[in-house]
Amino acid sequence: MRVVAAMSGGVDSAVAAARMLAAGHEVVGVHLALSRSAATLRESARGCCTIEDAGDARRVADVLGIPFYVWDLADRFERDVIADFTAEYAAGRTPNPCLRCNEKIKFAALLDKALALGFDAVATGHYAQVVERPDGLGGVQRELHRAVDPAKDQSYVLGVLDAEQLAHAFFPLGDTVKTQVREEAAERGFYVARKPDSHDICFIPDGDTRGWLGRRLGEAPGDIVDTSGEVLGRHAGAFAYTVGQRRGLALSRPAADGQPRYVVEVRPDSNQVVVGTADLLGVDLVTGTHARWCGPAPEGEVRVGAQVRAHGEEFPATATAGTGPDGDEVVVRLDSRIRGVAPGQSVVLYDGTRVVGSATITASRLQRSPA
Questions:
Q1: CA–CA distance, 267 with 291 (Å, rounded to integer)
Q2: What is the pTM of this model?
Q3: pLDDT-based confidence at 369, cuts 50/70/90?
Q4: Do residues 56 and 160 both lie within one domain?
Q5: Terminal-residue alpha carbon distance, the chain
Q6: 48, 49, 101, 294: which one is catalytic?
Q7: Cβ–Cβ < 8 Å for 326, 245
Q8: Which domain range does residue 298 map to?
């Protein structure tokens, strides 16, 4: 196969490219330029896609002896990821930009361009597995599964891939733990073998999401209130808060019962942040839209595992797809209450280790009374 290896400049994508080459594929390395003003140096382990990263990726490609290109997708990234991220927070929701990047950039813009140029697939350094099974029609069906290394598993952020995208995707690291990847990189003589992992949001390298949003959206002072409407403090912008947040509330006085308080709702229309006790965060019914299925959409009510955070716990649940006026709604009924589910997050559904699909959370509530 002719394969585009997406090379971020980190150790994972370097080893992924090497493994695709060793498997006999014709590999071309591509680094995505996603920033309109990339910094020359990263800040510690934060961020990615800098000029330094492009140079690291090129050095790996030189060691492997494969062609290497930089594709400028900065405008597309700004529109589909950064602007979406900003708009979601402004609307009182909590998005996951990594899912949107995988859906819109790596497995849409990048994959579409690769296929148009005559390539067969895109390979990345994500920790997930693709399993092929007979489809009953003489062909194979590709399934997305969790990685063998639970600490590095990234199947959650890949839950937005549909069956067509999955048919052209390779994740060579899914059967490997991170220490083995670094050892392999060192054995191959890659300079990036000990390079720190990037983390947090790549376009906010200092990790200050609140400050970044404030610069993009401007200050919008408003009230922090309790569930009865009593004003407990002030904020500089409701967009800087998310459901389940406890720190940084700067309330004027403690609760009468001494219990800690959390954000339980963000109201962009009135520019209010509502706080309450932890028991108000528990929900057992989640509704989502923008359903994305990694294979055939489930029919009727099915048993699933539900995960609402990238490295969060999976919870037993029942899901029903195809609901709502447009048939694009998914209703997830959890067996037990979970806390801190915010609109804008994604719920990813599993059948064992297999990723069934995902939806963007629009609402959550407590359906059953606490025991």
A1: 25
A2: 0.92
A3: low
A4: yes
A5: 56
A6: 101
A7: no
A8: 282-365
